[in-house]
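Long-time lurker, first post. I've been practising inverse folding by hand and with some scripts of my own, and I keep getting stuck on stretches where the structure tokens seem ambiguous. Below is the full token string for one chain I'm working on. Before anyone asks, I'm not after the true native sequence, just a reasonable design that respects the backbone. If someone could post their per-position residues I'd love to compare against what I wrote down in my notebook.
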């Protein structure tokens, strides 16, 4: 009896899976033309000035004085800037600035690469959303950024226009650079992306193998041990980047711990409701216990900073405000000042695998778009200043 019911359920699940796969493919085809590659848009003069940290009138003057190259101009005379244009302008400005590094804010000799992990063991708390927006914002500000997708669900990889289950099913994911058997050089799996200044180490379902293989590797004393594999692999490429960002899976497995051991900064995403906060308490307890174990095994565990990042914040929601007040009282300066607002601009952009920084302002109600961008910029600029402080500036 049970047997026949099981077969029934299995075939039902298979049927669901097939229907879902077909529907998803249809959705993808509708969202992107079959082999359309993602392309980064141009930025308005207002956006360019904000990203450069100058006024629009000064930007106009730079053109007028012939100090910077011409950029794309519409028939109506509006200037539009590519990211290459922005980086070119930064180089010109920095050359003549009183203090070098005013406009080129990346690493200087002696600065260590910043490695940030976005973490929480709850799915849906906004790890991927905050990681991708941070990565893009830093690239837009001229930093050299590497995003590393260590979630087997690979949603970060999808946001770059890849289909992980097709493109990196058997090879080419971060798994290949950290696996125990014949790991590949990290440089061989890095993808240049449509987003200038932002590279990707793709994820994929195969990352799950790392969780499966690690217990045996530990028994056989394979070196380096799991907690040092990410840091070891990164050594090969870290000189090429100012910032490396890990999008972690929603669990505290070996992958997450390996990323943590390579990190200089940790951002724990929190949705401000009591249930999420309660589960975060368990998460922190478990993390502390596990990190003790790996520390005792010889893992390096020194962060420049750890911050709680409040996501999906609705300032008009009374209970949420109470939870946020509670967290601020409890964790004080470890709760970021800026928080990510709950916004349909963020979730709607996500439906077509885009970020708020990729979509055009006119795709949304203006105030909706502006509020989302403002809140994301405030969050990312706060993280940027934490990095600058870690470099002894800021
Ligand atoms: N601040 C926000 N406002 C609205 N939707 C959000 C916000 N943050 C995340 N989302 C949406 O919630 C879903 C889960 O977020 P995601 O970043 O994928 O979480 P995680 O990586 O922690 O599982 C996504 O569909 C995303 O678009
Ligand atoms: Mg995620």
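-- Answer (accepted) --
I ran through it position by position. Result:
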């Amino acid at each position: 009896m049970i047997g026949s019911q099981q077969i029934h359920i299995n075939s039902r699940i298979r049927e669901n899976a097939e229907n879902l796969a077909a529907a998803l493919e249809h959705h993808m085809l509708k969202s992107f033309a079959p082999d359309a590659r993602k392309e980064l848009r141009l930025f308005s003069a207002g956006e360019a000035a904000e990203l450069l940290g100058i006024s629009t009138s000064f930007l106009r003057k730079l053109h007028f004085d012939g100090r910077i190259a011409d950029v794309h101009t519409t028939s109506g005379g509006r200037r539009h800037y590519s990211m290459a244009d922005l980086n070119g302008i930064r180089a010109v400005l920095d050359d003549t600035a009183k203090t070098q590094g005013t406009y080129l804010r990346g690493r200087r000799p002696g600065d260590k690469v910043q490695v940030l992990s976005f973490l929480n063991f709850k799915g849906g708390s906004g790890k991927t959303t905050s990681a991708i927006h941070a990565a893009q914002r830093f690239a837009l500000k001229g930093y050299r950024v590497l995003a590393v997708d260590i979630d087997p669900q690979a949603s970060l990889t999808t946001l770059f226009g890849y289909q992980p289950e097709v493109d990196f099913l058997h090879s080419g994911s971060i798994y290949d650079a950290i696996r125990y058997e014949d790991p590949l050089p990290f440089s061989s799996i890095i993808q240049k992306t449509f987003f200038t200044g932002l590279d990707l180490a793709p994820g994929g379902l195969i990352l799950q193998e790392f969780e499966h293989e690690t217990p045996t590797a530990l028994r056989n004393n394979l070196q380096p041990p799991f907690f040092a594999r990410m840091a070891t692999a990164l050594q090969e490429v870290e000189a090429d980047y100012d910032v490396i960002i890990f999008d972690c899976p929603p669990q505290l497995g070996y992958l997450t711990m390996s990323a943590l051991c390579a990190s200089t900064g940790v951002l724990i995403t929190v949705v401000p409701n009591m249930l999420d906060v309660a589960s975060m308490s368990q998460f922190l307890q478990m993390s502390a216990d596990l990190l003790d174990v790996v520390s005792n095994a010889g893992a390096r565990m020194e962060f420049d900073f750890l911050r709680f990042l409040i996501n999906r914040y609705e300032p008009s929601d009374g209970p949420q405000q109470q939870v946020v007040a509670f967290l601020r009282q409890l964790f004080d300066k470890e709760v970021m000042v800026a928080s990510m607002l709950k916004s349909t601009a963020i979730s709607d952009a996500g439906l077509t695998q885009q970020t708020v920084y990729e979509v055009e302002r006119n795709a949304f109600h203006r105030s909706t778009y502006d509020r989302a961008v403002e809140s994301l910029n405030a969050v990312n600029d706060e993280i940027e200043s934490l990095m600058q402080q870690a470099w002894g500036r800021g």
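A couple of notes from the structure itself: The chain has two domains: 43-96, 114-390. The pocket of adenosine-5'-diphosphate (ligand 1) is lined by residues 123-129, 155, 250, 311-312, 340, 342-343, 346-347, 350 (CB under 6 Å). Happy to go over any region you disagree with.
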